[in-house]
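Late entry, evening session. Most of the bench is empty. Finally got around to the prediction I had been postponing all week. Sequence below, unchanged from the version circulated by S.P.
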Amino acid sequence: MTSIIRGPSPADDASGSGRYPSRFRASGVKARHLRAHVLVVAWLGLALAAVAGQESLPVARWLAVHMFLLGAVTTAILIWSEHFAVALLHAKIPDERWSTVRLATANLSVAGLLLGVWAARPLLTAVAAVALVAAAIAHLLMLVRLGRGALGGRLKPIVSYYRAATAA
């Protein structure tokens, strides 16, 4: 029970640690999305820093545009297309480990691409590009798998546009 004066009691904490009431801890899909959105915000912050440092950074405009588009937008698309596909298809939520691997691969690949172009390292750029394509293919396979055995619904055809966009 929570007292107004004393705050939450240890009984409010489902884990028994007494640190945080269970209603204040994010869990499951909510926690997963919150953690993933930290990456989007980080890419946006880096893009703003690149814009601010245009005088001192080589290829600052290119870097800012690609941090925004390849970093922030790609990360957001990976997160939200999975989320909306699950909702539209009434499908089972994909395994968090594989979603995390896809998201980490995509973000590390984008970082490698940006670093490779900025430092004029063609091998790093090529390897990162291949890894980014692999993350996109893995995302496409996940979207296809979601459709198999899903309950569907009247908005089910929208997910085919997500698949087409990922393939493009």
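Two things to note before I forget:
The first helix runs from residue 28 to 52.
Residues 29-167 form one domain.
Will write this up properly tomorrow.
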